[in-house]
Amino acid sequence: MRTAMLNTVINAQESIPDDRPADWFSANAATVALGLSWISARLALADDAEEIRKAYDSARTRQLNANDPASIDRLGDLFSLAPFDLDVLLLGCAAHLVHGIGSADLEMAFTVCDAIEPPEARFLALGRFSPDAPLRRFRLIEMSDSAVQLQSRFTIDERIMRLLLGDDQRVAAIDQALEAEDCGPLPEHNLDIVDRLCASMDMERPAAALVGAARSGRRATGSALARRFGLGIRTLLLRFLPSDPGERRDFFALVEREAAIGRFAVLVDIDEADGRLAGEDLLRGFSGFTIVVGKCPLETARHVPTGHCRPLATADRLAIWRAVLGERSTALKGDLLEIAEHFALGPREIARIARDLLDEETLWDACRSVASRDLLGLSERIVPRFGLEDIVLPPKVLALLHAIEAQVRFKSRVLGPGGFAEQLVRGRGTTALFAGPSGVGKTMAAEVLAHSLKLDLFRIDLSSVVSKYIGETERNLRQLFDAAEAGGCVLFFDEADALFGKRTEVKDSHDRYANLEISYLLQRMEAFSGLAILATNLKNNLDPAFLRRLRYVVDIPFPDAAERETLWRRAFPAGTLTDDLDYPKLSRLDFSGGNISVVAINAAYLSAAENCAVGMRHIERAARAEFHKLDRDFGGWA
């Protein structure tokens, strides 16, 4: 019988990938075959049932003594199963693999197990089939009836049966919801947090909360905490959570089962949609190791040991970069400090960039892409095309732009260790106001700075951010700055007149809240680690008290005749044919740089319609149309 049973088990194992040592695989197959033989003999009331049981127990003992236990004992250890529970699992497996047994029910289970022959023991054994007992809590078996009775049938879960046979094939629906990722190195100052949490952990229901800003190393700290207990860590992806309450309970039970099998802690980000509810559900009903991370703690989790992660400083990020890059970091030298200063990335992002990095030359672009991705849906991304050499401005204005560029570029040198960082009252960012009439180049000035600094430029129309509803403007601004907190970009707030005005004299509640909105914007600009620029056409409408909080105020004037001539000479691309243009004469047209660009392209279309080069007549026609659009008189230009 045993030989036939062994063949049955081996046949059942043919589809199992051989990812375990051959000796364990063979020993486990023999042990399972003995167990199934005992089930068959016990149900048949065979005389040799006791002998087979002794052989089965001896096989398990040999594997235990070799520190390589059989799969049945691994399951028993993982889920704290009683000997009766293990026999129930074996019976469920036999119902699938052994011919003639058919479906398994409780009467069979009681027949199989010697330990429950007395009636009172049988009554107690019924409790092993209750919903809260391990067999059903962890979905190891499934009952046919909600009420437990002798005729109730049960089936072993396929995942558990395959584990008994030595196969660790995970459930796809659960596996896709549990992301295994490199959380990055532990920030050195968070080591104390791990020590404190370990000391205060309740190992009956191990759980911890890590509170702090995004990118402060919360996940890396959670991963280090799990490693202290010999566990990995996987993040629960909340988009896979079922919405139905019953399905949700089953889902969490399967997650708990997988966490026990895979020996990992489950991490939940409570800042995500449905995250707080998922965190509460896990902390309330999850017996495995749970780690919740978020900006604010859960009110219902005050009993959970909590660690507070402070934002990473430049020195912290520099140490993480060096750790993940290893020997490659020596080639970067000063560039690595600049990257750590410009891009406020977290350990997980740094580790991911370092893992996928092809060469050091692409490191800056990779950081820029990761740092700015959250802004894409909240603002307009402008790809910088022009450098400082392309913009036409008076020397004094150009000098200010160069000063702003230098302040951003050399921030790590000035604010680094032993520098000015500790003396700054309002933050490490650079703030500026670009003021001037429409079309003089405020947006282009922001673009050339972003281009020179190799940073992304994001344009935010403040008129679309400002709301008439009290508190809504701050909420919109908070969402925007939170998305930009990784830095590595230039924020350009256009149409600042929608928010700024002379609000010193508070006449009603709307003025008071307008002042609060402005103060909040300036506060977030000052705290922003990158370059934040406001643009306005009406500088005189801005309260001087607010202007004083900006580090730079750049007045961009209407171009004079010499500047307009330069703008005209640059207006037509090299591939556009022109015919004897009189640039000094064109400079007499009272246009801004933006108007000149519009007139030039409209003139090009007019010449294309005539299949000829752009001439003065085309420019004159386009200029007249532009003056008409501006509701201005063309004047005596001729």
From TrEMBL:
SMART domains: AAA (SM00382). InterPro entries: 26S_Proteasome_ATPase (IPR050221), AAA+_ATPase (IPR003593), ATPase_AAA_core (IPR003959), P-loop_NTPase (IPR027417), WHD (IPR054472). Residues 428-560 form the AAA+ ATPase domain. Pfam families: AAA, WHD. PANTHER family: 26S PROTEASOME REGULATORY SUBUNIT. Belongs to the AAA ATPase family. This is AAA+ ATPase domain-containing protein. It comes from Rhizobium grahamii. The lineage of its organism: Bacteria, Pseudomonadati, Pseudomonadota, Alphaproteobacteria, Hyphomicrobiales.
